[in-house]
Amino acid sequence: MHMPFSFKYKPIDTIRNQCIRILVVLLFLLVTCIHCMAESGIEDLFTDTFSVPGWKVDGEAYRYSPQSLYEYINGGAYFFIGYGFVELTGANVSPVTGENDAVAVDIYDMGDKLNAFGVYQLRKDSQAPSLGIGTASFGSNDYLVFHKDRFYVEIRAFFSDRKDQGVLENMASNVAEHLPGDNSLPKELAYFPEKEKIIGSERYISGGILGHAFFDKGLSCDYHIKGKKVTAFIVFLPSVRDAVRSVKRHKTFLKQSEKKYLPLEEFGKHSFISEEPYYQKIIVIQEGARVIGAYDLNDVEAGKTLLADILRKIKQTTAKQK
């Protein structure tokens, strides 16, 4: 005998939505676990591996997120957040002798090498010699900065009397030795050809190349070409569509500034030459999800050669990384 029974069907959309919610929760838990492991690893640096003769860590390490960083450095938080800041882990260090001296060691996790490099380049003293710590470093008797991999590190001293710079260098070396990652520079710096480049002029900019919001994040580098300083830049966009849109917005800006632009079809249909307000001639080209250019040009042909070399270097570097 057939026994009828009722079965309540759920719409497919409802089931799909529930699955999506479950996946989101699982992904959140996974990211949280990974993040927690990363946090504990940096904290261990102050508990298990910090070893500087005559100095000890006071209490527990402190930690700040993008939401709370302003509590520690007030208005300076916006600068770091603009460069992809993930988390700050730090600790206070004092002499084992009980003197009133103090040192603050702050480790900024910037998410990736490019962000850490960008922060360091904008904070560094161009006149100060490198100390050979991490990827690059500089410092004085009471202040030392270095970057390594995705980390940017500041060490600030509050000494009651003048002390040898070696104190901070020992601390920085100890921290650098135990930070994860390597001392290599961001791979994107290889996009700039070496010929006529001004050594050390590379910068990673967050907040607008040439002050343009539509050129938000990218690299710039200075060159000496025929006795004139020229700046090349590479803007990184999320997609080809975004890159094309940025070029169009640039053209709109130039038109509003009463600057004419002429197409450069040899570099593609979205490439042009113009004059940027407050600068000399500028060449802009779009290549994939990048916008590449050079400004302060007094020799257009030399500018074209430089951009052609940059395009070649990008293709070569990208091919090696595959």
Outline of this structure?
The chain is of the alpha+beta class and 322 residues long. It is built from seven helices and 13 strands. Strand 11 and strand 12 form a beta hairpin.
Give an account of the 3D structure:
The protein is α+β, with helices and mostly antiparallel strands and 322 residues long. The protein has seven helices and 13 strands. The protein folds into two domains: 167 residues, Protein Transport Mog1p, Chain A, CATH 3.40.1000; 135 residues, Protein Transport Mog1p, Chain A (3-Layer(aba) Sandwich), CATH 3.40.1000.
Order of helices and strands: HEHHEEHEEEHEEEHEEEEH
Please state roughly what percent of the residues sit in beta strands, choosing from under 5%, 5-15%, 15-25%, 25-35%, 35-45% or over 45%. Answer: 25-35%
Q: How many beta-strand segments? A: 13
In CATH, the architecture of the largest domain is: 3-Layer(aba) Sandwich
First-to-last CA distance: 66 Å
CATH fold name of the largest domain, please?
Answer: Protein Transport Mog1p, Chain A
Structural class: alpha+beta
Q: Tally the structural domains.
A: 2
Given as residue ranges, the uncertain stretches (5+ residues, pLDDT < 50) are: 1-10, 22-40
Summarize the biggest pleated sheet: 7 strands, antiparallel
Please report the number of helical segments. Answer: 7
Radius of gyration of CA atoms, rounded to a whole number: 25 Å
Helix content: 25-40%
The overall average pLDDT, rounded, is: 86
For the biggest β-sheet, the strand order reads 7-8-9-13-12-11-10
**Shape summary:** elongated
**CATH C-level class of the largest domain:** Alpha Beta
